C-alpha cells in the first residue's frame, strides 16, 4: 500500500512548495485547492472546498480507490481579511474561521481512516498566533486557535501513533505577500521595513516551510515530536517590541 501526502491549499505559494518537495521525494501527493495550479503540476490536483465535508469525503473515496494510506495531512489552506474587529462582517469572519480552522477538523475526520501509526498531521499556523498587527482580527483569531487545536489533536491522536505539530511562518515571499506590499504607497519601503523586522534581514521562502514540513513528517527524524509549534520566522518573534 502506497503512502500518500495530502496538502491543502496546494496550488500556490507555500502549499505548492510543500507539494512539490514531497513529489521530489517520490511520494504520491494529493493537492487540494479551489483553484487549479498554473502550469504542469507534479502532484495530483483535486478541486475541493476544504470547509465542505462532503467534498472532502469524495477525496477520501478517491484515496481509498487507489489503495493509498496517508502518511501525512498538511493543512495549509488559508484565507485572510484585512479588517479590524469593528469592520469585519459576520460573513467574512465565518469564512476565515471555516477555511483556516474548521477545515482542520474536517480533514482530520475525513482522512483519519487512512492514517496509520507513524502518520502525522502538520497544521500551518502563523507568527500572528503569538504577536500580531492591527487590521487582521479574523485571521489572527484563526491562527491562535490552530495553535491550541494542534495541542489538543496531539493529545487525542497520540494513542493511535499519530503525531500533530504546527508550523508558524513569518513573512514568506509569496505572490500573496507581494500583492499586500503593492497596496502600500511605497512598496519598496514597506519591503525594507518587513525585512528589517528579522534579525536575518530577509524574508522567508516557501521552500523554508516545505523543508520543515518534510522534517516533521519523517517518522525517523521526528518520531518523538508532537504537540509542538515551530516558528520559521527569521527570528522576528525573538525580538522585544521596544527594540
Task: Label this structure with key terms.
243 residues, Rossmann fold, 7 helices, 40% helix, globular
Question: What number of domains?
Answer: 1
Strand order of the largest sheet: 3-2-1-4-5-6-7
Main CATH class: Alpha Beta
Q: Structural class of the helix and strand makeup? A: alpha/beta
Sheet having the most strands? 7 strands, parallel
Radius of gyration, whole Å: 18 Å
Fourth CATH level, the homologous superfamily: NAD(P)-binding Rossmann-like Domain
What is the rounded distance between the termini?
53 Å
Supply the CATH architecture.
3-Layer(aba) Sandwich
> Could you estimate the helical fraction of the residues in percent?
40-55%
User: What name does CATH use for the topology?
Assistant: Rossmann fold
Query: Helix-strand pattern, N to C?
Result: EHEEHEHEHEHHHE
Mean pLDDT: 93
Count of helical regions: 7
Q: How many strands in all?
A: 7
Pick out the low-confidence regions.
Answer: none
Architecture overview:
This protein is of the alpha/beta class. The chain has one domain: NAD(P)-binding Rossmann-like Domain (Rossmann fold). Helix content is 40%, strand content 18%. The protein has 7 helices and 7 strands; from the N terminus they run βαββαβαβαβαααβ. It has helices at 13-24, 53-65, 90-111, 137-157, 175-182, 187-196, 206-217, and strands at 3-8, 29-33, 44-47, 69-75, 115-124, 163-169, 229-232. It has a 7-stranded parallel beta sheet, sandwiched between helices. Helix 4 (137-157) links the parallel strand 5 and strand 6 (163-169). Helix 2 (53-65) packs parallel to helix 3 (90-111) and helix 3 (90-111) packs parallel to helix 4 (137-157). The protein is globular and about 55 Å long. The relative contact order is 0.15. The model has no long low-confidence stretch (mean pLDDT 93).
Amino acid at each position: 500500500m502506497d503512502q500518500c501526502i495530502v496538502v491543502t491549499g496546494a496550488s500556490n505559494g507555500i502549499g505548492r512548495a510543500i507539494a512539490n518537495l514531497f513529489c521530489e521525494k517520490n511520494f504520491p501527493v494529493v493537492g487540494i485547492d479551489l483553484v487549479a495550479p498554473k502550469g504542469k503540476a507534479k502532484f495530483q490536483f483535486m478541486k475541493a472546498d476544504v470547509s465542505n465535508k462532503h467534498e472532502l469525503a469524495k477525496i477520501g473515496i478517491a484515496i481509498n480507490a487507489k489503495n493509498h494510506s496517508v502518511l501525512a495531512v498538511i493543512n495549509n489552506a488559508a484565507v485572510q481579511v484585512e479588517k479590524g474587529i469593528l469592520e469585519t462582517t459576520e460573513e467574512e469572519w465565518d469564512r476565515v474561521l471555516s477555511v483556516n480552522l474548521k477545515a482542520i477538523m474536517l480533514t482530520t475526520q475525513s482522512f483519519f481512516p487512512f492514517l496509520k501509526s507513524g502518520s502525522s498531521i502538520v497544521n500551518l499556523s502563523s507568527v500572528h498566533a503569538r504577536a500580531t498587527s492591527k487590521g487582521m482580527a479574523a485571521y489572527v483569531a484563526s491562527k491562535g486557535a490552530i495553535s491550541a487545536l494542534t495541542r489538543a489533536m496531539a493529545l487525542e491522536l497520540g494513542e493511535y501513533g499519530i503525531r500533530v505539530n504546527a508550523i508558524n511562518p513569518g513573512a514568506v515571499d509569496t505572490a500573496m505577500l507581494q500583492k499586500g506590499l503593492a497596496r502600500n504607497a511605497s512598496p519598496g519601503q514597506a519591503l525594507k521595513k518587513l525585512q528589517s523586522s528579522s534579525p536575518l534581514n530577509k524574508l522567508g521562502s516557501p521552500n523554508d516551510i516545505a523543508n520543515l514540513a518534510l522534517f516533521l513528517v519523517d517518522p525517523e527524524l521526528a518520531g518523538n515530536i508532537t504537540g509542538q509549534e515551530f516558528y520559521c520566522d527569521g527570528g522576528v518573534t525573538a525580538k522585544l517590541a521596544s527594540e
